[in-house]
Design a protein that fits this description.
By secondary structure, this protein is an alpha+beta fold.
Amino acid sequence: MGNLPTRTLERGQIAHPTIHPCLTLAVHLGTMSYYRRLRLPGASYFFTVALSQRGDDALVRHVDVLRQAFCVTASEHPLHCDAMVVLPDHLHAVWTLPPGDADFSIRWRKVKARFTRWSGLRASPSPSKARKRECGVWRRRFWEHTIRDERDYRAHVEYCWRNPVKHGLVSRGADWPFSSIHRDIRAGRVPPEWAEATATGDVGK
C-alpha cells in the first residue's frame, strides 16, 4: 500500500510452528451456512477482502481513504502488517496480531466501516444487507487463512507481492504502486528486480 505505518510490534516467532490443518470451516445445515474461524492469539493470518461489486475500482480511487482507515484502526488495535496489496476491487494482507489477541474481525470491521463512511461510497445492498442497514460496498465475509509455518508465511507474503502481475495490471510486482513490496525494498528485504516470477498457483482465494 505504499506507505504503511511503522510496525507496532515484532512479527510473531513462528520458526517452530504448530501445524493447523483445519483453518476455516463452513458447516452447511439446510440452506443456512455457519462459519467457524480458527483464532490463534498472536498468530499470523492471510486475508482476502473484497468489494461487493466485481470490477469496481473504488479501492485504488480512494486508496488514501483506505490507508487512513487502516492506520486509525491499527492505532486502536495494534498489529504488524507483514504484507498488503490493494487491487481495484479487492485486497490481500498478511497480519500478525499481538500476543494474547486473536480478534482480526474487529479490525476488518472497523477498516471497512471507516472506508465506507469516509469515502462516501454507496451501493445497492442486497435485501439482507438492507435489513441490517449495511451499505453494500463490501462483500460481507472475508477469506482468512492461519499461517502454519515459515514456508507458508513466505508463500503468502510473496503472493501479495505478485498479485498485481497475476491480474495483468503490471509486468512486475514492484511496478504496482499500492503494495507493501516498496516498503520491503526500501528496508532491504527484497531486491528491486523481484517480481519477475509469475504466480505458479493460487494461495488463498
